[in-house]
Design brief:
With about 160 residues, the protein is an all-alpha fold. It has 6 helices and no strands. It has a single domain, classed as Cytochrome c-like domain (Cytochrome Bc1 Complex, Chain D, domain 2). The N and C termini lie far apart (about 120 Å).
Length: about 160
């Protein structure tokens, strides 16, 4: 009858194995919490972004209106209704001009006209942010903008 071979002691003590199991369980718990956090963030983030955009737009409209009154109203009219310069509160202008085009016109001015460059980059007095605020204000006029086919001539072309 063969003899039973002696068994060597376990390579890892039982305590060490339990400790490793504990760390593995806590690691899995941490991963589950992390994944749940990412899912909650993904669900909540669009609403937070919408709220932040709405708040920023409201702020930009208010600041843009103030900047417009101080810098643009002398030529374009207090309510952008035109004056010696084009009517900016005109459906035709607002529908045919992109925000980027408006920013470029305000920032760089219009060569051969009385429209100066307002951006610091072109020798004016406004930052790019201030130019964007004016554009946001002008864009806010669009829903109630009247039709002014002669918007390019200002008040002289509408009457």
């Amino acid at each position: 009858m063969p003899r039973d071979a002696p068994h060597p002691p376990p390579f890892e003590p039982v305590e060490l194995e339990r400790s490793l199991d504990r760390y593995l369980v806590w690691g899995l718990v941490f991963m589950v919490v992390l994944v749940a956090g990412f899912i909650a963030y993904r669900v909540r983030e669009p609403g937070l972004r919408r709220d932040a955009l709405r708040s920023q737009t409201t702020s930009y409209i208010a600041v843009g209106h103030t900047l417009y009154r101080a810098s643009c109203s002398e030529c374009h009219g207090k309510q952008a209704e035109g004056g010696s310069a084009p009517t900016l509160d005109a459906k035709e202008f607002l529908k045919s001009t992109t925000d980027a085009q408006m920013q470029f016109l305000i920032a760089g001015g219009v060569s051969g006209s009385d429209m100066p460059a307002w951006s610091l980059d072109y020798g004016g007095t406004m930052t790019d942010e201030q130019v964007r605020q004016i554009v946001t204000y002008l864009r806010s006029l669009e829903p109630h903008a009247p039709s002014v086919p002669g918007w390019r001539e200002g008040k002289s072309g509408s009457g």
